[in-house]
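Morning, I've got a small favour to ask if you have a moment. It would help a lot if you went through both lines with me. Thanks so much in advance, here it is.

***
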Amino acid sequence: MTSDPFGTLSKALWIGGAQWSGKSTVARLLATRYGLTAYHYDYHDARGHLDRRVAYRFRLHQTAADPDPEAVWVNTTPERMTHETLAGFPQRFEWALDDLRALDSARPIIAEGWGLRPELVAPLVDSPGRMVVLVPTELFRQHQIRQLPRASALATRVSDPVLAQRNRVARDRLVAADAVRSARRHGVRVIEVDGALDPDAVTDVVAGHFSPYLEN
């Protein structure tokens, strides 16, 4: 493994889990409360890692262009989408680790994102207590789809947006279930988010879990 010159990974706290479970919000609130640095995986994965993603495709003799949205969202199945998503996480995790190794902080780094998988994080930490996995309940996810415009439609234009959205939701459900199974295999706590608690209250729960690492 590449060196960790500032010891960032050994001090990091990790929030993994499902899409739409409040990971980014909780990480941001924790950072504000405790003077932490927050690392938002989704932002870096979608923007900061673009050049590395293109180079990686070249090494695999793939086209450098992004995949056709029709193939990604419409002409596929949730099971295939899940397989492709899970298969891509390990390489993308290595890029996130490069980002994290470059950070130097006297306080823990709080890293959040759905690509921060329990099976990938577990070898890096001295205790599974350094991680939690957040997942929305099915009822709460359906509530989000009904109430939140961003949760109920794709930003990408495709020929059949209804099918694409159905595939997306089913894919997210399968990836979330896999994260829960992985968390339980590795002794990582799973927190179900059902909407009964507001973001501050969910953050209280996560802060309580991380309290041994936040007290100093």
In short: The domain at 8-208 is CATH 3.40.50.300 (Rossmann fold).
